[in-house]
Write a structure and sequence with these properties.
Layout lengths: L1 E6 L4 E8 L4 E8 L5 H6 L6 E5 L3 E2 L18 E3 L2 E2 L12 H7 L3 E4 L3 H11 L2 E6 L5 H10 L6 H5 L5 E3 L5 E6 L4 H9 L3 E6 L4 H5 L5 E4 L10 H10 L5 E4 L1 H9 L4 E16 L4 E13 L9 E7 L5 E6 L4 E4 L14 H18 L9 E4 L2 E4 L3
Parallel strand pairs: 3-4, 4-6, 5-7, 6-8, 11-12, 11-13, 13-14, 14-19
Antiparallel strand pairs: 1-2, 1-9, 2-8, 3-9, 10-12, 15-16, 15-17, 17-18, 18-19, 20-21
Subunit structure: Composed of two chains; the small (or glutamine) chain promotes the hydrolysis of glutamine to ammonia, which is used by the large (or ammonia) chain to synthesize carbamoyl phosphate. Tetramer of heterodimers (alpha,beta)4.
Pfam families: CPSase_sm_chain, GATase
Catalytic activity: hydrogencarbonate + L-glutamine + 2 ATP + H2O = carbamoyl phosphate + L-glutamate + 2 ADP + phosphate + 2 H(+); L-glutamine + H2O = L-glutamate + NH4(+)
């Protein structure tokens, strides 16, 4: 069956349909990963997007239950150069085609994905429509023009109620803005007692859980569209250690008074990131459309810890007074090496250091603390 991909600038691609025989609207983006297409399909951060895979052959190792990043795929549609019909992998339980059919997601193959990627790089992210209908291009353009990009992605992908993954270690409250399963696996591997809460959980509700630390998860869309989460983070800042990942990084920056802006075509796939402290470069996995503006950091208390080696954009922040830091990339992912997983260890170290200060170890003499004028002041100071 024939499928067509129409962009808002009028560019039309014609190829072969796979997956569901339905229409899909969304922002057309590209990702540069050579492997990991299943993780892309099931990453909640891709909610609202038609994803173009720049690697030309997709589907060759099928789909396995154990590699899902959430319970279902969240992309709007999929664009590939060549779709492999017969995967070679003893673990495979689906083909790419059968998975997309099950979740009513259309795909298009056999188009020039290099041309499409170059167009996105030059023009920026574009709205698009995948269709198998025989409607005229004029009619399709009218439909696409009337479509407005999703603004409630976080509400769509966040958990609707709190749930617990018990452990005997530090209690980590995860604010779920579209949390990947790999983040929870990293915390579980370290023995943490995990409580996952919806994105709109208030600061008072989180305090009642008595967390040792708070993790702000990844997620889709513009961070400014969830102001309640920004307010919650600002109210908890300084009371308990905070670690932000991807969207969580942007939300922490906004909570501290910094500003964010949309990138032209975003960062998706594998990107080199330099840690300023060690001057070491890491290969990281990324998926985001927005970045923190360096010009907005003055007076926020935030210092840059990591930068993107390609375009110099901010990839990591640390608060100079409060126990809080963040990464724009995904330390739980494995774009080859797993060398950026150390950030989870740094988070737990920060929690233990914070608890040691509050308990004045080794004497174990407790003292009270309160937040005064935006700073944590101890009663015996």
């Amino acid at each position: 069956m024939q499928a067509r991909l129409l962009l808002e600038d009028g560019t039309l691609f014609t190829g072969k349909a796979f997956g569901a025989s339905s229409d899909a609207y969304g922002e057309v983006v590209f990702t540069t990963g050579v492997t990991g297409y299943q993780e892309v399909l099931t990453d909640p951060s891709y909610c609202g997007y038609i994803v173009t895979m720049t690697y030309p052959l997709i589907g060759n190792y099928g789909i396995s239950r154990d590699d899902f990043e959430s319970v279902r795929p969240y992309i709007q549609g999929l664009v590939v150069r060549e779709q492999e019909l017969v995967p070679s992998n003893w673990r495979a339980q689906y083909t790419l085609d059968s998975l997309l059919k099950e979740y009513d997601i259309p795909g298009i193959s056999g188009i020039d994905t290099r041309m499409l990627t170059r167009k996105i790089r030059q023009a920026g992210t574009l709205k698009g429509l995948i269709t198998t209908s025989d409607a005229s291009v004029v009619e399709l353009a009218e439909r696409l023009g009337a479509y407005d990009v999703l603004k409630d992605q976080v509400a769509r992908v966040s958990t609707k109620s709190m749930y617990i993954s018990p452990g005997y270690g530090e209690r980590i409250v995860v604010m779920d803005f579209g949390c990947k399963s790999s983040i929870l696996r990293e915390l579980t591997r370290r023995g943490c007692d995990i409580v996952v809460v919806p994105y709109d959980t208030t600061s008072e509700q989180i305090r009642r859980l008595h967390p040792d630390g708070i993790l702000l998860s990844n997620g889709p869309g513009d961070p400014k569209r969830i102001p309640a989460a920004i307010r919650t983070i600002s109210e908890l800042l300084g009371e308990v250690p905070i670690f932000g990942i991807c969207l969580g990084h942007l939300l922490l920056a906004l909570a501290c008074g910094a500003d964010t802006a949309k990138l032209s075509c975003g960062h998706r796939g594998n990107h080199p990131v330099k840690e300023l402290r060690s001057n070491r470069c890491y290969i990281t996995s990324q998926n985001h459309s927005f970045t923190v503006l360096e010009s907005s950091l003055a007076g926020t208390g935030l210092a840059v810890t990591h930068i993107n080696s390609n375009d110099g954009s901010i990839e990591g922040l640390r608060h100079e007074r409060y126990p809080a830091f963040s990464a724009q990339f995904h330390p739980e992912a494995a774009p080859g090496p797993k060398d950026s997983g150390y950030l989870f260890d740094e988070f737990l170290d920060l929690i233990r250091e914070h608890k040691a200060v509050l308990t004045k170890q080794p004497s174990q003499v407790l003292f009270t603390a309160e937040k005064r004028k935006g700073e944590l002041v101890y009663a015996d100071q």
